Amino acid sequence: MKQSSLCPKFEKGMQMLGKRWTGLILYQLLEGPQRFCALEGALPVSGRLLSERLKDLEKEGLVHREVFTDSAPVRVEYSLTQMGLAMEPVLKGIESWAQEWIVLDPKDPADCDRSND
Amino acid sequence: MKQSSLCPKFEKGMQMLGKRWTGLILYQLLEGPQRFCALEGALPVSGRLLSERLKDLEKEGLVHREVFTDSAPVRVEYSLTQMGLAMEPVLKGIESWAQEWIVLDPKDPADCDRSND
DNA sequence: TAAACTAACTAACGAAAAGTAACTATGTTA
DNA sequence: TAACATAGTTACTTTTCGTTAGTTAGTTTA
Fold it and tell me: What structural domains does chain A harbor?
């Protein structure tokens, strides 16, 4: 692999966001702490990859994983750390950009607005 | 593939940015129109993928491709369209986020600042 | 005039990552 | 005890990536 003249921090950041699903997972977690199955249900990602991505994100420090042994079948909750939360403006920025610029096939109704949560 | 409850526009946007190199290519193009070989030199991406990504980005409307037949050996310049330029705040946002939060191995000096161009 | 060079790609191929489905461990409800 | 749910993991196939080599077209060099 070649060397680039870019800032290595930026490059690393883009490398993370430039992995499939990472952005969507973080975005979904902006809604608040969520369990594995909730994320799996909300996103079009398979359990295998979701598990993998969450592990990566935890390792990188964007996501916190907490296991609750008290309740019924063990419950695992994922939430954003400070570092993850700091991504909010970026994610919202992508959302606005998409709202403004992306045109979908005319067949889909495809309209949504979550900017007011 | 499952169905998600996310806004399809946002999902599509993330799908684009969530492809390897896309973000870096756009970021590099913020510097101004550039030729194929310049991009290839500036980024750690191979010619094959650069070509593929540029084609995608052109198709999606973020990048404009212009061929100059006047000068020496044919010259091809890539530049951002309005849609591509509109990504600037997002890309700069990722940059700031990375500057603030990403920690690299202590061996790399890894410090840079392009926020003032 | 032909060999070598440059820019901008494209093709082929092995390697890595993603998608899908089935399976596991643990506990719960019928 | 059988069927169900959560939170994964394993095994297998398909897709995407990365590398190297080759192509097209015009340019300089000898």
Answer: 37-100 (1.10.10.10)
